[in-house]
Structure formats: C-alpha cells, structure tokens
Amino acid sequence: MTILCVRFQAPSADETVLPRLLGLLEEFTPVVQALPPDGALADLRGAERYFGRTALELASVIRVRALALYGVDCVIGAGPGPMLARMALRDARPGLTRVVAGDEVREFLAGRPVVALPGVGTKTARTLCEYGLDTLGRVAAAPLSTLQRLVGARAGRELHERANGVDRGRVVPNAVSRSLAAERPFTRDELDPDRHRRALLSAAGELGARLRALDKVCRGLTLTVRYADRSATTRTRTLPEPTGHSAALTAAAYGLYEALGLQRARVRAIALRAEGLDPAERASHQLTFDPVDEKVRRIEEVADRARAKFGPRAVMPGTLAA
C-alpha cells in the first residue's frame, strides 16, 4: 500500500480552503485523514490499480489540480505507511514528490538522526545518544532488550519496530469541521520572539472569542510556525480540560512555542488551531477559587457581549489574556 502525506501551501488559514482540498483528494480515494491546519494523509491502496497509475503519477495529478482549481501548491511525500510518508514529506519540495518505496525503507532511515523519527522527543533522543545510538540505523541494529532497558518495554518495542521500517499506522478518515484556525502573518520575516508571542496572544484571543460565540470548547491546540524558507513546524498539545477560555488557550500556545526552542528563527507566519470542538454545555469544568481567574472570565463575558453588539473590532482579541 502507498500513503501520501500532503501539505498544502495555502496563502492563509481560510476555513473554507482545506475542506475543498480534502474533497480533491477524495476524488482519488475515500480514505483521507485531515491534518489541520494545512495537511492530509491519503491512502492510495486500490487507487493505483483503479487509475492504472503509480503513487508518483497520482501525486503529480493532485498537485496540478490543486494549482488549477484553487491556486494552491503542495508538497507531497509518499511511503508504505503514514509514518514513512510523513518523514518523506520532509525531503519533498514544491514540484518534487519524495517517494520511499518498500525496498528503500531501511536505506532511507539508516542515516537519519533518532530525533527524526516521529514520537522520539528530545529526552528520549538524548538518552539514546548517550549510549551511541544517534542514528536510526544504529537503533535498528541494537538488541531489543537494550532499547527496552533504556526507554521502557513498550516504548523500546515501538522504537525498534519503527527504526526497522515497521509502520503499523493507518489512515483514519475524519472531518476537518471540528476545528477553528487563526493565523497571524508578518509583513516581513520576523526574528523578534516578543513579536512572535504577541501574535500568539492575538491568535489565541481570537480563537477564544470565536469558540465562545459558537458555545464551543476545544480539547486540543495546534501551533504551526512557517519560516522564511517555506518550511514549517507543527506541534499539538492536548489541553488539561476542554476550554474556550482565552487565557488558557494563550498559556497553552506559549507552552507550545517555548517547547520549539527557536533560536533567531526567521518566522513568516504563526497559526493556531483549536482541535476537537465540543458543545460547551457537555464539557466539565474544574472549579477554581482563584479570584483573578474568575474576574478574567467575567471580563471575557462583557467583552463578548460588546463584540456581539458592536462587531469583532469592539475589543481586540487577546488583550484580556495579557
């Protein structure tokens, strides 16, 4: 089977763009998983036989149609499974699809640093590197028992399998409608972390206001940072509790940003997406006796009424969470 990982290079976080682009992918296969804010996985099992074309040829058709119909270019990686397709995407460029065939998997993985493997964080990578396991080839050759002693039984088994190219993931069709996005582009490539944080504050404030206007809460938050070289970094965090509270969203956004550890990065745009939307009345809320938190919530209610009466510019999004 062949999986495509597609990242659409849409000029903005227009809520209507991604669903239409997902619809384009569904013309080739019904098994499409949205990866907000700008990506998707597509399972081409059966599509290659049905259309009589290879994954590379289908990827070319998808790119041409996205450009012709929506003016959106895309970057595409292809592999035998979702993990490998995501990793292949990192080597792809607009107009150049990176395909990892089944017989190329070991060679493709061998020389890559351990941190390149999805699911391997900084702490795990540091532990492995301390024992000389700094590449996926060395991890793949290490005894399973050694890896389990270093990172735990279950994590060691998964690490061993993935380093050897065993990709047990699958594409799970979903809907992109259960999310909201807010993007803050910069007029020039921005180096100043303070300006990055102000953009996060504004975006989180906008998301909070929109969630409350819809009587919704979100269970997760995704941060996407786009750089001057057209590359991007995306991180997702599950929130401690479902919320539509701007201050909570801002704190989570700051945490995601700080975890990236950016050093003088030339940032072109910052986007936040609220994931896993649910009706507010169904969400449980942890009681708090913090008077400051309660005061901020009451101020938000007043600001929301002002927006409803005088329009969205009546109160600048995010200023309440400063």
Q: Could you write a compact summary of the structure shown?
A:
The protein is α+β, with helices and mostly antiparallel strands. It has helices at 17-26, 47-51, 55-70, 82-89, 105-110, 122-130, 136-141, 144-151, 153-163, 193-213, 246-260, 291-310; strands at residues 3-9, 32-35, 39-43, 73-79, 98-99, 179-190, 216-227, 232-243, 267-275, 278-279. Helices cover 42% and strands 22% of the residues.
Helical residue percent band: 40-55%
Spatial arrangement of strands, main beta sheet:
2-3-1-4-5
Question: What structural category do the secondary elements indicate?
Answer: alpha+beta
- Could you tell me the mean pLDDT? 84
Q: Which regions have little confidence, pLDDT < 50, spanning 5+ residues?
A: 286-290, 311-322
How many DSSP-defined strands?
Answer: 10
Largest sheet: 5 strands, mixed
Number of helices: 12
End-to-end separation in angstroms reads 49 Å
**What proportion strand?**
15-25%
Radius of gyration: 21 Å
Keywords:
5-stranded mixed β-sheet, alpha+beta, disordered C terminus, 22% strand, 322 residues
Structure description:
- With 322 residues, the protein is an alpha+beta fold.
- The chain is built from 12 helices and 10 strands.
- Strands 2-3-1-4-5 form a 5-stranded mixed beta sheet. Strands 6, 7, 8, 9 and 10 form a 5-stranded antiparallel beta sheet that branches.
SSE blueprint and pairings:
Elements: E1 3-9, H1 17-26, E2 32-35, E3 39-43, H2 47-51, H3 55-70, E4 73-79, H4 82-89, E5 98-99, H5 105-110, H6 122-130, H7 136-141, H8 144-151, H9 153-163, E6 179-190, H10 193-213, E7 216-227, E8 232-243, H11 246-260, E9 267-275, E10 278-279, H12 291-310
Parallel strand pairs: 4-5
Antiparallel strand pairs: 1-3, 1-4, 2-3, 6-9, 7-8, 7-9, 7-10
Helix pairs in contact: 1-3, 8-9, 10-11
